[in-house]
Amino acid sequence: MNRRFARLIQDRWQGRSPLILLLMPLSWIYRLASQVRNRLYDLRVLARRRLPVPVIVVGNITVGGTGKTPLVIWLSLFLQRAGYRPGIISRGYGGRAAVWPQVLAPNSDPAEVGDEPVLIARRAGCPVVVGPDRVAAAQTLLAAHRCDVVISDDGLQHRQLARDIEIVVIDGQRRFGNGLLLPAGPLREPVSRLQRADVLITQGAAHAGERSMELRDTGLRNLASGKACAPGEFAGRTVHAVAGIGNPGRFFARLRGLGLEVREHPFPDHYRFRPEDLRFGDDAPVIMTEKDAVKCERFARSDYWFLEVEACPDPGVGALILELLKEKCGGQETA
Length: 335
What we know:
The chain contains 9 helices and 13 strands.
């Protein structure tokens, strides 16, 4: 699909314009195919593979950024503090590796294995394996490392890998858009799917039955030198804001909230940046997301920066996850 046309559709997912109405028959087909596939798994016609350790899936039912990646990082660090040895698997979206699965290192090439997995490998403090076949990725992870819990980054709709705990992340601003399934709306599954999840976490104001989460700014870091500074040092300055993520507007608003004068440069999610994409013809600094930074550091200049953030869920989320591990999987009782 042409990127401009895709953006046109996504911009209308909050309502029901004539264009959206034209796409609704395709949404009905998508929904039917999804229902048939799920029913085949429920009837065990399609087999699910269970691992010898508990599996926690962190996913969403909408297209676009919800804060899932920072939450995966937080969950890994939390479980390690609780005495677990987690490992993470991911699809490696956009990666062009010739061989899968891939065991990641902090210096892995995001063009080969995907941008989000590289970011997770740098921040999560635990082993990360990527591959389109999540069962194979998990088996590779367990063969190489003594993990006692597997975190699946995304994969809520990939039911071949059996899971013990489902965490669904919700965008508190956009919620579920117009309530329609792809391509007429942003939903991968009907909203009723949330009833089967164990934990609902909303980035922003939580509704009934949900737990809230905020992304907290921890500073700006220079891509070329690694120097860190407080976001306040840029207050009042004009900057070029670059975001190749699911919801660029949220990032731009965050920078404005820090007192920056923002010139917006949105790019498609998982965009493969080239040096010329970041040349804007002046000396204003460029500030991007950390996910974009892992793809741009190979041609970084001294005026390229990224905003570091960390997930801060409701304090009760950690206790709830530990209780679910104990209840469903015989997990450890330490906290």
